[in-house]
Amino acid sequence: MKAARRVTVIGAGIVGASCALWLQRGGHRVTLLDGNPPGRGTSRGNACSIAVHGCIPVNRPNLPLQLPKLLFGAHRPLSISPLYAARRAGWLLKFLSHCRAREVAKSGAALAALLSRARDGLAPLLAEAGCADLLRDRGCLYLYASERDYRAGAADLARRRALGVRCAELDADAVRELEPALAMRFARGVLFEDAQQVANPQKLTESLVEKFRRDGGGWRGQNARAVLPGGSGVETVLDGGGVIESDLAVVAAGAFSTRIRGVGRLPLATERGYHVEFDNRGELARRPLHWVGSGFYASPTDAGLRLAGTVEIASLSAPPNPAVPAYLARMAKKMFGIKEAPQRDWLGFRPTFPDALPVIGESKRAPGVLLAFGHQHLGLTLAGITGRLIAQLASGAAPEVDLAPYSPARFGAR
Ligand SMILES: Cc1cc2nc3c(=O)[nH]c(=O)nc-3n(C[C@H](O)[C@H](O)[C@H](O)COP(=O)(O)OP(=O)(O)OC[C@H]3O[C@@H](n4cnc5c(N)ncnc54)[C@H](O)[C@@H]3O)c2cc1C
Q1: Contact yes or no for 273/316 (Cβ under 8 A)
Q2: 387 lines ligand 1 (CB under 6 A)
């Protein structure tokens, strides 16, 4: 075991906050930095699901067949910007190459290894931070509008089961009993009993950072510009001036991570996603509901009902597309009979690698720089276990999971 080390954690989303707390628990002296207040990025607006069943990536075998519709149609659940596709053709081709059954099986197994530890990675942090009440244990319900949709989903369900996911198959009456406020009749449902839900993801990250700071963790309200080798470890160069010297730096800046100089040229892109929120409508769903094929979850939050999801492959700087929140509002009417307009909408940036796996490990290019980003649709779910693995690496302990599938080296030396 290595002695206590000075560690700088870059990015105070749910992943950075979890890394900071696990490192602090491991006895390290940690400084967390972010130019924004904690938990205001993608970690704020997600679908609130601790989706331990989420071992099937978006890029799966049937996706290439839909490509023309995704590029040139008005398909709202999943779309690809033609401009972005032209600019990042290499990334898109890699993303599509991971639709092959063999690759899907490989990524699925690697995701499942993390997902099986997801609850254990988060629960101790919430308990210590005094916010365990944010977590609800009512599972997550997938809904199928027709028998045909249900049969089309059978292969995915079999894959999940083969990877150890527990679930119960429900008929239309059982769905109605679980979710009596649905305005629509769903032919079938699948309940993932081990999934959990967070009532307020922003509050979760804030609570973890508050706990970290109460226990003496350092905070800097500045962004990192670069991570460079320096002295006996790493120098983190700050936007607006200043340098933090430490033994290790952890980069956890979500979709913005590769903008930090020194991180290296890794094939990170973003799957943009949206939400709309209806205040005081939380009673319409008892747990996160995913209408399979619609691309979104409807989740009850402590403020109301949030419809969150969709995938838009486009750049970080492209303006929001108002057609997507409008689509979500239409779906709210169909699914729950909500006639009013949502009170607000939001756009967030899932950090995504072509193989749908995060990077968790030391940078090949910059010794002493640990990378913890690229959690795509699962960052809320996987933040806790990622933090625990990063703390194990920092302490020189053998990681509890074989980290080879998540190594930055899988993309070659960059
Ligand atoms: C619509 C939608 C629904 C989703 N639903 C779910 C779900 O139900 N379950 C689930 O598990 N996941 C879900 N996700 C995915 C999940 O939200 C993300 O994977 C997760 O929030 C990523 O967390 P993060 O900490 O890596 O990034 P972020 O939350 O984006 O945090 C990154 C932080 O880094 C900071 N930063 C950026 N640049 C710098 C810099 N140079 N220096 C310092 N700080 C910097 C930012 O200000 C930000 O605070 C969803 C995502 C979307 C968009």
Answers
A1: no
A2: no
